[in-house]
Protein 1
Amino acid sequence: MSQVLAFSNHDDPVLDAKSEQHLDWLCEQIIANRFLPVPPEEAVFVGDGDYRAIGAEFLGHFVRRAGLMPDHDVLDIGCGIGRMAVPLTQYIDASNAIYEGIDPVANGIEWCKRTISPAYPNFGFQTQDVKNALYNPEGSIGGRGMRLPFQDGAFDFTAMISVATHLPPEEIETYCTEVFRVLRPGGKLFL
Ligand SMILES: C[S@@+](CC[C@H](N)C(=O)[O-])C[C@H]1O[C@@H](n2cnc3c(N)ncnc32)[C@H](O)[C@@H]1O
């Protein structure tokens, strides 16, 4: 059985004090680390705010609220321009786990492929030409026809951050069906 995590319903702490302290430290390091890639401001199409701080904050939520572990295989649907991927590079175990990001906006995916994957080869990115009124109005795949390009049971964790809010309700149903197909038993969808 897989689980959907609604943000407001899961306040139970999943970390002990030591892990909590380590996670706080890691998130601070991510925010302060000027060697981590950040796209040029004019290329960021995923919303305002501090790119690195927002990513680090979400990494904290993934771990605290959803129990994300370094050896979990992660799928990031609507990964945009890598705002979640960059902090995850500092958490996911390079030799034990993979990250896959998909998004309809080719420019964002190209930046991620060019900037993140060479340093973190376990991080893959692909464009999926799904139609979206705001982000990809000329897309060749209708949202109801979207199929995730991954095998059944390939992931432990799926993130859809600020994506469902951009989809019509009937497409959310399609995405959920597909997410549950690609999640392993016990896997989690964080949206
Ligand atoms: C507000 S942005 C959030 C991006 C990223 N999740 C983040 O938090 O940085 C919304 C993203 O959803 C993507 N998107 C829009 N329609 C989509 C669809 N049908 N399937 C997957 N992603 C989609 C957009 O291209 C955009 O990158």
Note: The longest helix spans residues 17-32.
Protein 2
Amino acid sequence: MQQLNLFAELAPVLPVTYYPDFLSFEQANELYQHCLQLQWQQNQIRIAGKTMPVPRLECLYGDKNCDYLYSNSVFLKPLIWTDNLANLRDRITALTGYKFRIVIGNQYRSGQDSIGWHADTDSSMGYQPAIASLSLGSCRKFQIKPRNGKPTDFWLEHGSLLVMHPGCQSTHLHQLPKTNKVVSTRINLTFRPHTGGGR
Ligand SMILES: O=C(O)CCC(=O)C(=O)O
């Protein structure tokens, strides 16, 4: 499997590994169809005293009691793993050695759906979490940068996997910016550890 390890010569400062062809085209198509049937919800987020819709749809699947709260305002309760998501989780663990208890789904319906600069630092994931991010559907630009540095762009392809290694969330921020280009639906699955619960 092709692997771009960005600890190495391309971009020495990035603590991520990108696997452009983690899934075959057929596997990615099948998983995309499955993911369209997940229980997507439109959540509301509170920022600077204002409540607004999150600019994407979200869902959470995972182990029992692995609730997830982010930005101190969006609270997600896990649904039981589907067989497809559990198989995918185990396949990513076999590749990376990292263990995951939850997966957060993001559905970007158009170029106007996005996620702004942030790090995933929610305490429920424990110390220095590894996060594995699988992309399906439309290819979108993903950016990552050191907290005070310049962004590097990735074009996250259908069936690709981007692994953010332990430490990445402390030193780097990432985002999926809006685009005015016409793009159709993209689904992103982020597999994460969690300190609570149990299977
Ligand atoms: O959609 C993506 O690739 C990024 C998702 C993300 O940053 C997140 O869920 O924290």
Note: The first strand starts at residue 4 and ends at 5.
